[in-house]
Structures are given as structure tokens and as C-alpha cells.
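Postdoc handover notes: sequence design on the structure in folder B. Input C-alpha cells:
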């Protein structure tokens, strides 16, 4: 049977006429059996959870509030080839996005949406990205036919009756429509993970709308996250002078008590959640978390860039998360209230994934079958969805609508070769160059081949909602409009460089605190750096090795600038910049030319 929703139809109709009209239109189109306005209450969540357990979408686990979802095997990650930026003018989508004419896309998707919620409940989820008490709260309303999405949005965003009340009669909001695309005939039995082979993840930037169809997977269905907070918000940021970025935010306190806020952009599954919750191995250093995936940065009155985390929960990669790598994530999860998706399950109702030590006996794999060890037990892109408030090192400022002043921005990728452990940009424009040319090996976070090196500018390749050349220009302009001394310093890191034996040259995780320490020393004017053709790098001796089982030569290997590797990179860099044609800011061409000269010198 269909997921029985709490018996409640328009129990608290909002006073917002535009919202009401939109909801009516969508209900007329999608033809659900029931319409439910979500209030975000515990009672509502309990009812939805029970209904999802009945349909087999969720399985209760041992810890209170913990549930396991297993997706359809074809619905496990973001689908970049099915993601569209439908700007009125194709040129505005640029060379890095799929584009379709918005009129045509609306026609195609309207046909798909016609009757797509038959036999199901249509949920209306009012949400706010960022604090509700912000000067201009960023509202959204997601209409979805998935109770799994409602529960996940409840964790990932500030959502429910309070938001609706704050929207009043006329607050602007992002319209976010989602359907799994699986209507039910009368009497038809539902499947645990309804979805459709046809998938569309569509952004209409001009009208700030999102239409998603066919997928229940987080990045495709929790529309407050990538679709709103990155793709749509990047367009808002372009128009309004701020930045929406794929960045974690952390607070770092030194043994002397000096505090810096650091933002870092790494591509999906390249270490943001891990760095955000870092447990420093260097004594006396302390990290607190503000965000692990998305940051909105805007100038404060003092000319500094302030960051907020628009999200309210953590949607983290499970594999690789363990007491040794990310103890603070483990402590966050120990507190329960987590929806796991596509992890393995122990006979006792616990969870397990690759990277969590030896596999216990009797595992059920992510397909729901007894695990025989021939393939990963947990899907490589399996995830946990947990309230950020459960993070034991959450910085109290995470909820401050003014945000926190950023001292340093780190860009980073997953590269076996070429990219040193850490490089400091000479200035803002050089930093933008490092970000614009960021490269990384692809991961399981998106469908497609894994391990292929691709350019992923600012770790935003799948998330820039407009022409990437204009996006680079926007970054350059942010620097032009600011006092250079107030701007964050920019660094480029790579935790993933390997030696000839294939092993990581740098131990990573908590040991990354040693790199952060050098970053802070650079900010405070005490750190040593040497000029190289690609930027400033620390001499190996400048990385604190107290208590570390590596000698200076090992650190030097991780830091090495290999000129031949860099020269080999140049043709691809040129080809990359050529893709943006006229739109590429000339300062970035100048940066590339200067790099060529330095490498040939
Ligand atoms: P999204 O949430 O998809 O945007 O990814 P993310 O950037 O938050 O990635 P996450 O922190 O979840 O890390 C993904 C993978 O990278 C995990 O398998 C980690 O174990 C691994 N990883 C993270 N930090 C390090 C590190 O310092 N060194 C090494 N070798 N691996 C790391
Ligand atoms: Mn991400
Ligand atoms: Mn993450």
C-alpha cells in the first residue's frame, strides 16, 4: 500500500497567496491522493518514519532514531549527465553545464509530472537555508512525493511551521518540485525505493526554480542542498555580490589561543567532512565545526568575507569514516537520529562500511543480501544523514546569521601526482587561478567512471549555476572590490599524493592539522615559505613533525614541486581555459602565461 501519511489535509493553510497558488497548480498537475503541509514536528516525523518502515523503505536499527534505507541499485549518486541549467540563453549555461531551452524542458517535464503522484501523498516542505533570523532569510518550499525526502530535509534544513510563519504573506521563496516519478495504480503495492529510470535534475536560474524527477538519492532529491544552496544560490550570489561555494567551514584555535576561521573547497568525496571535524594530532590545537559541505560568503561591514553554513545537518560519505580517521563523525553518529543510506548492516542492527576495520560476521550488504565479500558491502557513495547539532565539536557560532570572518580558503583535490601537499597563492588572482584550474580524480559521489582526472574549478564543476567563465570573473571581482589585506589568503592542498609504491605520501586526517598549523603561521606572518614556479610552499622543516612517524625526506616528497610533472600539465590547462573563450578573465590567462614562463625559466 502507499505510505499512509498522517491524516491531515491542509491543516494549517498558510496565508501566502503565491505559495498557495503554486501548491494548487502542482497538485492539479501531479494528481496526488493526499496533500500534506509539513510542520516539522516530532509527531509528524514519527508518523512518516512508521509509514516508511511499513513500506520497507526504512529499516529500524539498534540505536534510537537510526534507520537504514537501501536505494534502487540504479539510484545511488548524483546524476551529472541528467543535470541541466535551463537559462533562457544557452550561452549563460556555459561549456561546463548541460543546457536545454527552458520552454522545451518545461514541456518535457510537465508531461512527466502529469499524474506522477497518483496513489501517493504530496508533501509540502517549507524550509530555510541558513538561520531563520538572518536579515534576509533564504526561503524555499519543496514539494515532494517522498516521505524519505521529507525526513531528510527535516535533518538537513531548518524546516516546518516556523519557516512558514516567518514567510508571512509574501516572502520570496525558491520553488523546488520533486517527484520520484513512480505513480501507483489503485491497489498497486509500492516498492521500498520508488524511482524512475528517466531522471532530470533541472535548475531554472532566471526564475530561481528547481524541478527534479525520477530520483530519490540525496543530491538529486534534497533540493535545499546542491540544487538550491549551490546551483541557484551561485546565481543569486553573482547577481547580489556574494559567493555560494562547495566549502566546509572550520574554526581553528592555536595553543596560544588565537582563532582563525578557514573554509575549504574539495570535490565530492575528497575530504571536506573529514577536515571539518578534524581531531588535531598536534597537541594544544583545537578544531570546531561550522559546516562540512556548503558555505555562503559575503562581505561584512569591516570588508572581510563572512561565511555561513546554510545547512542544518550532515549528509556525509560513510565509507572511510572510522574512529581512527574521523572520530568526531563517529561521536556524532553515536547519538543516533541518523538515516543511513546504502550502508551494510550487522545482525545486531548496527552499521558497517569499508574502512571500518574487519567486517563482522553475518553482514547484510547494501543490496539487502547476505554479504559474500566479493563486492563492497556498503556502496562507495553510501551516506549518513544526521543533525549537525549532534556534532560534539560544533562551534556555537554556526547558527549566527552574521557568519564568521574567513582568514583562509583552501582548495584541494585528489591527485596521485603533481600537486604538492600544500601551496600558498601569491595573491587573490593567483588563488583564483589555483581554484579555476583545480583538478581531481572522479569519485563514486557521481555516477560514471571513478578515478579519472578532470578539472573541477573551485570543486564546483557540477554546481555552478551559470557560465563558468562568468563565475571566474565573479571571483576575480570579489577580490577587486576588496581591501587586499582583509581578503582570505588562498592555499591549495592535496592529501592524496602517492609514492612510486602507490602508498599515500601523507598520512592525512588528524595529521592535516600540521598543514593547518603552517597555514596559520603564514596568516600570522611567522611561517617560512619558499618561492616556486607554482606558488609558495613550506620547506619540509617548516611542517611540524612532533610525534609524527615520518622523517623530513618523507615530508619533502609530499611537498615536492616536480617541474616535469607541471610542464606535462600545461597543455591541458591551456585547453581548459580555451573552453571559456571570451568569458575567461584575462588575468587568468596572464596567470597561466606567467606559470609557463616560470616553468621554462
Ligand atoms: P561530499 O560530502 O561528497 O562533498 O565529500 P567530502 O568532501 O565531504 O568527502 P569526505 O570527507 O567524506 O571524504 C571522502 C573520502 O576521502 C573518505 O573515503 C575519506 O576516508 C577520504 N579522506 C578524507 N580525508 C582524507 C585524508 O586526509 N587522506 C586520505 N588519504 N583520505 C582522506
Ligand atoms: Mn558535497
Ligand atoms: Mn561531505
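Designed sequence:
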Amino acid at each position: 500500500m502507499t505510505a499512509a501519511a498522517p491524516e491531515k489535509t491542509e491543516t494549517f493553510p498558510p496565508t501566502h497567496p503565491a505559495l498557495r497558488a503554486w501548491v494548487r497548480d502542482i497538485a492539479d498537475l501531479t494528481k496526488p491522493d493526499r496533500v500534506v503541509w509539513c510542520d516539522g514536528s516530532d509527531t509528524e516525523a514519527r508518523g512518516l518514519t512508521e509509514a516508511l518502515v511499513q513500506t520497507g523503505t526504512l529499516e529500524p536499527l539498534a540505536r534510537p532514531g537510526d534507520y537504514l534505507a537501501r536505494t534502487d541499485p540504479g539510484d545511488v549518486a548524483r546524476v551529472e549527465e541528467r543535470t541541466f541549467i535551463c537559462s533562457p540563453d544557452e550561452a549563460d549555461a556555459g561549456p561546463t553545464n548541460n543546457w536545454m531551452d527552458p520552454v522545451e524542458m518545461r514541456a518535457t517535464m510537465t508531461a512527466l509530472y502529469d499524474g506522477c503522484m497518483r496513489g501517493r501523498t504530496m508533501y509540502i516542505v517549507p524550509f530555510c537555508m541558513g538561520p531563520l533570523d538572518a536579515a534576509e532569510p533564504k526561503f524555499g518550499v519543496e514539494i515532494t512525493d517522498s516521505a524519505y525526502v521529507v525526513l531528510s530535509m527535516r535533518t538537513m534544513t531548518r524546516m516546518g511551521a516556523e519557516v512558514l510563519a516567518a514567510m508571512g504573506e509574501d516572502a520570496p521563496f525558491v520553488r523546488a518540485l520533486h517527484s520520484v516519478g513512480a505513480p501507483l495504480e489503485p491497489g498497486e503495492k509500492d516498492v521500498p525505493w520508488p524511482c524512475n529510470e528517466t531522471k532530470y535534475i533541472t535548475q531554472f536560474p532566471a526564475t530561481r526554480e528547481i524541478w527534479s524527477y525520477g530520483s530519490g538519492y540525496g543530491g538529486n532529491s534534497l533540493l535545499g542542498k546542491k540544487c538550491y544552496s549551490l546551483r541557484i544560490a551561485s546565481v543569486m550570489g553573482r547577481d547580489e555580490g556574494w559567493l555560494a561555494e562547495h566549502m566546509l567551514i572550520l574554526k581553528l584555535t592555536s595553543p596560544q589561543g588565537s582563532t582563525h576561521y578557514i573554509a575549504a573547497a574539495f570535490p565530492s568525496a575528497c575530504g571536506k567532512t573529514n577536515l571539518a571535524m578534524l581531531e588535531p594530532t598536534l597537541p594544544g590545537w583545537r578544531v570546531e565545526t561550522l559546516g562540512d559541505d556548503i558555505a555562503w560568503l559575503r562581505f561584512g561591514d569591516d570588508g572581510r568575507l563572512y561565511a555561513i553554513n546554510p545547512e542544518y545537518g550532515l549528509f556525509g560519505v560513510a565509507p572511510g569514516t572510522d574512529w581512527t580517521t574521523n572520530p568526531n563523525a563517529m561521536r556524532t553518529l553515536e547519538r543516533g537520529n541518523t538515516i543511513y543510506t546504502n550502508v551494510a548492516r550487522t545482525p545486531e542492527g548496527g552499521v558497517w562500511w569499508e574502512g571500518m576495520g574487519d567486517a563482522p560476521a553475518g553482514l547484510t550488504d547494501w543490496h539487502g543480501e547476505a554479504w559474500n565479500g566479493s563486492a563492497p558491502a556498503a556502496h562507495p557513495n553510501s551516506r549518513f544523514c544526521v543533525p549537525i547539532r549532534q556534532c560534539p565539536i560544533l562551534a556555537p557560532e554556526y547558527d549566527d546569521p552574521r557568519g564568521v570572518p574567513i582568514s583562509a580558503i583552501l582548495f584541494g583535490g585528489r591527485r596521485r601526482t603533481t600537486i604538492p601537499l600544500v601551496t600558498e597563492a601569491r595573491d587573490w588572482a593567483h588563488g583564483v587561478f589555483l581554484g579555476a584550474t583545480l583538478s581531481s580524480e572522479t569519485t563514486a559521489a557521481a555516477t560514471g567512471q571513478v578515478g579519472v582526472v578532470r578539472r573541477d574549478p573551485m570543486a564546483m564543476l557540477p554546481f555552478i549555476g551559470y557560465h563558468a567563465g562568468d563565475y571566474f570573473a565573479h571571483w576575480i571581482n570579489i577580490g577587486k572590490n576588496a581591501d587586499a589585506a582583509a581578503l582570505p589568503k588562498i592555499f591549495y592542498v592535496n592529501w592524496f599524493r602517492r609514492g612510486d609504491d602507490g602508498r599515500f605520501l601523507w598520512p592525512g586526517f588528524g595529521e592535516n592539522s600540521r598543514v593547518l598549523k603552517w597555514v596559520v603561521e603564514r596568516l600570522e606572518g611567522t611561517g617560512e615559505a619558499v618561492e616556486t614556479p607554482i606558488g609558495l610552499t613550506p620547506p619540509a622543516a617548516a611542517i611540524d613533525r612532533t610525534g609524527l612517524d615520518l622523517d623530513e625526506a618523507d615530508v619533502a616528497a609530499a611537498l615536492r614541486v616536480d617541474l616535469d610533472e607541471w610542464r606535462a600539465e600545461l597543455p591541458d590547462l591551456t585547453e581548459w581555459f580555451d573552453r571559456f573563450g571570451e568569458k575567461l578573465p584575462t588575468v587568468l590567462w596572464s596567470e597561466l602565461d606567467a606559470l609557463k614562463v616560470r616553468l621554462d625559466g
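Context for whoever picks this up: Residues 246, 268, 293 surround manganese (II) ion (ligand 2) (CB under 6 Å). Don't rerun without checking with the PI first.
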